């Protein structure tokens, strides 16, 4: 029987299994898309013998939208296994039916590092490489050829996933300067029709602001370019006060969009507004980003391009002279399989989503036990539920003993 210990973290009840001790707060945030609150803490994992981060999802079953987001994040963390993506160590549901995600705990994040000011150019280059090798672009839907070799596609997008929220605070770093991408709460499939509210404003691609639902994986490349520029400057490149101001700040640097770009904007009103703007000529990036050499300037010019169809791909970026020191095609793997997004467009009621989440939790623990079976550990006893029985009976979950 799993034992739970209760503690207060940031004014909220934390119910953690007995394998975790010394629970303490780390931070408080929110899922931007559905405003599902989350709280984070750190703890020591007695089984793994290491510090971990524990994220509590508040009210994960409050609405079908929040339940689907919870399900999505659990599935993504389970499948996306890579040295530069945050790893899932454990997931459990408490007797209060709160969902907890346990991940690796790294020393800091890029946002905290940048609070001290710009980074040295050699650190910018190393972090930029690690971001790009994981945030890789796949061909756009309008140009994708399914027979095209997959050698140039890197891990995250090769799994069919668009992160949608690349920003400094979602890039965690350890004491060896190894970087990992975290927070997949906004991630979506590689589809050109998606919800419009994505990413933190400063890092939001112009096509997202203008076309609202028509965009692809190129948006991650734009966000990565904004992050790289911020590492050079020590402050955001486009710190817009609101979406309109954000777009104007972008135009002040990059100039007016081309007619080709404007022709792909979905709404007539937006087209009229864009065409009515006074003419702005592009400015040299070195006038707004400090410490650029020719190579870093050249790369950022191709990442921070208004038209996503003209934006550089990650495969091309990794072959750019700026990345020559670190680029190694043999050490830049792609995902073994595409992430299955079939659930994303489905209509599920709350009870069905609850069951899907619960079974993902059980599957995680069964897989972990099977992986450790040579050590003599027993497989968990997975509870069975009749049709008349609530699958999320807290007692049923508590009485189930995972092997980890």
Automatic annotation (TrEMBL):
It comes from Aspergillus nomiae NRRL (strain ATCC 15546 / NRRL 13137 / CBS 260.88 / M93). The keyword ATP-binding applies. Its EC number is 2.7.11.24. It comes from the Eukaryota. One of its GO terms (molecular function) is MAP kinase activity. Belongs to the protein kinase superfamily. Ser/Thr protein kinase family. MAP kinase subfamily. SMART domains: S_TKc. ATP binds at residue 56. Its cofactor is Mg(2+). Keywords: ATP-binding, Kinase, Nucleotide-binding, Serine/threonine-protein kinase, Transferase. The lineage of its organism: Eukaryota, Fungi, Dikarya, Ascomycota, Pezizomycotina. PROSITE patterns: PROTEIN_KINASE_ATP (PS00107), PROTEIN_KINASE_DOM (PS50011), PROTEIN_KINASE_ST (PS00108). Residues 20-323 form the Protein kinase domain. This is mitogen-activated protein kinase. The keyword Oxidoreductase does not apply.
């Amino acid at each position: 029987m799993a034992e739970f210990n209760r503690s207060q973290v940031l004014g909220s009840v934390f119910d953690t299994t007995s394998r975790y001790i010394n629970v303490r707060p780390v931070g408080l945030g929110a899922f931007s898309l559905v405003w599902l609150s989350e709280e984070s803490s750190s703890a020591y994992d007695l089984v793994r013998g290491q510090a971990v981060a524990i994220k509590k999802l508040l009210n994960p079953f409050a609405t079908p939208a929040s339940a689907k987001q919870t399900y999505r994040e659990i599935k993504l963390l389970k499948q996306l296994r890579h040295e530069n993506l945050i790893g899932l160590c454990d997931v459990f549901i408490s007797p209060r039916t709160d969902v907890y995600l346990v991940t690796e705990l790294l020393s800091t994040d890029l946002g905290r590092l940048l609070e001290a000011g710009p980074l040295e150019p050699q650190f910018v280059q190393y972090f930029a490489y690690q971001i790009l090798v994981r945030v890789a672009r796949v061909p756009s839907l309008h140009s994708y050829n399914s027979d095209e070799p997959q050698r140039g596609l890197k891990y995250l997008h090769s799994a069919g996933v668009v992160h949608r929220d690349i920003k400094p605070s979602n890039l965690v770093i350890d004491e060896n300067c190894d970087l990992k991408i975290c927070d997949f709460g906004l991630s979506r499939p590689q589809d050109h029709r998606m919800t419009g509210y994505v990413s933190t404003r400063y890092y939001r691609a112009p096509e997202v602001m203008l076309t609202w639902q028509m965009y692809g994986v190129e948006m991650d490349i734009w966000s990565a370019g904004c992050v790289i520029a911020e590492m050079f400057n020590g402050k955001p490149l486009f710190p817009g006060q609101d979406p309109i101001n954000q777009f104007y700040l972008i135009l002040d640097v990059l100039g007016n969009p081309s007619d080709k770009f404007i022709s792909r904007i979905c709404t007539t009103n937006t087209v009229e507004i864009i065409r009515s703007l006074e003419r702005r000529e592009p400015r040299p990036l070195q006038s707004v980003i400090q410490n650029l050499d020719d190579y870093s300037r050249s790369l950022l010019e191709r990442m921070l391009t208004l038209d996503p169809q003209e934006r550089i791909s990650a495969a091309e970026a990794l072959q750019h002279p700026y990345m020559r020191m670190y680029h190694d095609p043999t050490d830049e793997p792609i995902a073994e399989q595409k992430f299955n997004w079939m659930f994303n467009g489905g209509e599920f009621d709350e009870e069905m989503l609850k069951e899907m989440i619960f079974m993902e939790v059980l599957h995680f623990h069964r897989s972990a036990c099977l992986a450790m079976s040579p050590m003599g550990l027993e497989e968990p006893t997975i509870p069975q539920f009749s049709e008349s029985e609530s699958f999320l009976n807290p007692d049923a979950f508590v009485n189930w003993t995972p092997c980890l």
